[in-house]
Amino acid sequence: MVAGKKGKGKSECLEGSIVDNARIMMVVMDRSGTVSLWNHAAEAVTGYGKEEVIGSPVIWKLIYPDVSYRSEVTARIKEVLTKRDYFENLETTIVTKSGEQRTISWNTRETTEGARPSIITVGIDITEQRKAERRLAELNSFNEGIIDNAQILISVFDPKGNIVIWNRAAEDVTGYSRNEVVGKNTVWKSMYPDPAYRKEITNKITSIIRSQTYFENLETTIVTKKGDQRIIAWNTKEIVSGDGHHEIAIGRDITEQRKAERALVSYISEMAMRLKNPVEILRDNLADLAHLTFTGTLSFDEIAVTLEGQVRSASQIAANVAEFQKEVAEKNEAIPEAYRKFLSG
């Protein structure tokens, strides 16, 4: 019998050591809130030593000093306990002895062992976890705001090609809303409806990715939901997230840029054609004048009259160029403003 009692004493000491050194708050109290056990973790988190806590229910007023909040917590506990005799993951904000606020997740069980029922309460300090979650949520919200308000198409898709992000610019340019495309991979067929062209683009992308896993400034022509054609310059990168590997595709709508370039090429070509003949005539006339001057065939007055005629021809050429520039600038909206000012100047 003595040996049996001695063994039980060792067991109780072992259990007490485990409870006291646990990394989570462990509290035992009766139904009135009077505390009978307050472990080291409870002391460390709250700042209140067991000598201040055990044998009294005063701790609950200390860690919930705000009367209205304490009433709110009490009401929540009573509401839960009317449905069952325990509660799980009840989050409350306590105030420590030093005045710091900590978020605790509480779990309780009632035990009938011993002289009277006791409530075993386990508290986990989740303050840092909640802070990290808030920071992550703020960061995600910030990133989502940047993505959604970017002036370029941004789409993110999973390894199966299913779209997970489709920003506002992508909606505006393509005409397809995010509700129509997110979670699917069918939008690519809609944007590249011609099978032969779609195959050509797919082969080109596959060839590029085989060699360098990404592509830059790949220009393709998409068809919008309205049936318009737009030229997009695509850049892709692989990103790794908690859900695995995803691809981010960034597209710049360069349709107007390409129109402007074609307009300028057309302008230069047309201008070259218009200038070629009169400039050649002016050149030949000046060459003849130089020859006649050197041979002494023309008098000074004749040379002056001839030069005045060439000046008039050059002035007419300049006037024609200015008129053509103005016409191009006014009629072609695709020409950038900087070029338009040059042409109109």
Please give a structural write-up.
55% of the residues lie in helices and 21% in strands. Helix 11 (255-295) packs antiparallel against helix 12 and helix 12 (300-331) runs antiparallel to helix 13. It is built from 13 helices and ten strands. Strand 6 (153-157) and strand 7 (163-166) form a beta hairpin. The chain starts with a helix and ends with a helix. 12% of the residues are buried. Mean pLDDT is 81; it is low at 1-8 and 10-16. It has a five-stranded antiparallel β-sheet with strand order 2-1-5-4-3. It has three domains: 2-125, PAS domain (Beta-Lactamase), CATH 3.30.450.20; 148-253, Beta-Lactamase (2-Layer Sandwich), CATH 3.30.450; 257-344. By secondary structure, the chain is α+β, with helices and mostly antiparallel strands.
Beta-sheet strand percentage?
15-25%
Strand order of the largest sheet: 2-1-5-4-3
The beta-strand count equals 10
Radius of gyration: 41 Å
Mean pLDDT: 81
Q: Level of helix content? A: 55-70%
Seen as an oligomer or otherwise, the chain set is single chain
CATH class of the largest domain: Alpha Beta
For the termini, the CA-CA separation is 113 Å
CATH architecture of the largest domain: 2-Layer Sandwich
In short:
By secondary structure, the chain is of the alpha+beta class. Helices cover 55% and strands 21% of the residues.
